[in-house]
Amino acid sequence: MSCPRKFLALLLALAAISFARQKADWIVHARFVVTMDSQHRILNDGAIAIEGPRIVAVGTRRAIDHDFTAAQTLDKPDGLLLPGLIDTHTHAPMSLLRGIADDRRLDDWLENYIFPAEARNVSPEFIRWGTRLACLEMLLAGITTYTDMYYFEDVEAETAKQIGIRGVLGQSVIGFPAPDYKTWQAAIAGSERFIRRYIHDDLIVPAVAPHAIYTTPDDALIAAHNLSTKYKVPLLIHLAETSKERADSLQKRHLTPAQVLERLGVLNGRVVAAHSIWLDRNDLDVLKKHDTGVAHCPSSNMKLASGAAPVADMLKLGIHVGLGNDGFAGSNDSADLLREMDLAAKLQKVTRMDPTAISAEQAFEMATVGGARVLGMEKEIGSLEKGKQADFVTLSLNESRALPLYDVYSFLAYAAHSSDIEDVFVNGRQLVAGRRVLTIDRAEVFRQAGIYRERILATLKR
């Protein structure tokens, strides 16, 4: 065979191989791929292929490159590829109230500072800019899904969707005039309109969020539950956050907060109970019986001296536990879910005087697929598996704290910083590239935050 013929045959062979490869939008390579699948596999020199909003393959770099060709590639030879982090409890727009009242007990903080400040300042535009500020911080911390309960939730949903982040967003229902609805009945009606608007959205999961048993009348709790079950959406609520909440409930009702919710039927369905600190064994059995998910917020619980949730006991019982940052004002001042992993593990160790109480791997699981289970979304998010939503982040190993790397989970739980996050994808769309958020005008958010600071300070002086 002549040289031209050999060359032509080679070209035809290469073309045949190329033709046989599947097309993808993205191929992402990394030194390690932390899958958090059922076997918790960590792939050395791994890769994933993305087509549209979903993962179409997970494997070694060699296998993915053999089977797929992509319009765009991202190479992280000195990085980790992780499932996107999942925040199971926060109040994102409160980012604009960060730092106005610290070092106080929860009841004092709420009644004398936060509720008055919200009454004077919270508006649709406040929600819009507070959400942008919070999402800027959350994305840079590797959070791809966040769970919120606040006011004007339709405005927050519009803003989050424009940014591209995934949100489980709960319209608050509370027993006194709120910034958006002046009665709980109006809040229930508004919640239903919000749910109907977003029930089939690809990024926003609408929810209803009765605040707590001590701020929301029983009739409102029941109405919120009825709404949740009617539309099969999550119900978000604070539960047993303080010893005072438990003591008051026992004194007035002769029932614990968990028993109150069970007696009212509120725990039947898809419920996320934030904090869940002051629970006895019977209460834990109640949560397990109803498959209630728990959002554990260690920073908040420590800062407010609320206590330490019995997370190790919950996990042993098979209760689903995720991590939450809680509010950006007073209870926590950061969106750093990596820090919450560290604190979640260490808080259990020190309160139980047992260094084996929670492992690094368990802490990372709570921030990813464990959080997805809490939200009832484990079939869609929380791990890197074929068919799941393409929500993932890359994390740099180019810092001294990553060396020498003996155990990936240990590094993630105890050494990694949110500043190590480099790239963030949600629904197959890149939102952060090289620590630059692509969908938020950072300079304008900073400018608006300064404007709101002056406005809020002025109202606090009244």
Topology:
Layout: H1 3-20, E1 22-34, E2 42-51, E3 54-60, H2 61-67, E4 68-83, E5 85-91, H3 106-121, H4 124-140, E6 143-150, H5 153-163, E7 166-173, H6 184-198, E8 204-210, H7 218-231, E9 235-239, H8 243-253, H9 257-264, E10 271-275, H10 281-289, E11 293-296, H11 298-303, H12 311-317, E12 321-323, E13 326-327, H13 337-352, H14 360-367, H15 369-375, E14 392-396, H16 408-414, E15 421-426, E16 429-433, E17 436-437, H17 442-460
Q: Helicity level, as a percent range?
A: 40-55%
What is the strand arrangement across the widest sheet? 3-2-1-4-14-15-16-17
Uncertain segments are none
Number of helices: 17
- How large is the share of residues in beta strands? 15-25%
CA radius of gyration is 23 Å
Largest sheet data:
8 strands, mixed
Estimate the global geometry from the Cα principal axes: globular
Task: Please characterize this protein's 3D structure.
With 462 residues, the chain is of the alpha/beta class. It has helices at 3-20, 61-67, 106-121, 124-140, 153-163, 184-198, 218-231, 243-253, 257-264, 281-289, 298-303, 311-317, 337-352, 360-367, 369-375, 408-414, 442-460, and strands at residues 22-34, 42-51, 54-60, 68-83, 85-91, 143-150, 166-173, 204-210, 235-239, 271-275, 293-296, 321-323, 326-327, 392-396, 421-426, 429-433, 436-437. Strands 3-2-1-4-14-15-16-17 form an 8-stranded mixed sheet, covered by helices on one side. A 5-stranded parallel sheet has the order 8-7-6-5-13, sandwiched between helices. Helix 4 packs across helix 17. The longest helix has 19 residues, at 442-460. The protein starts with a helix and ends with a helix. The mean pLDDT is 95.
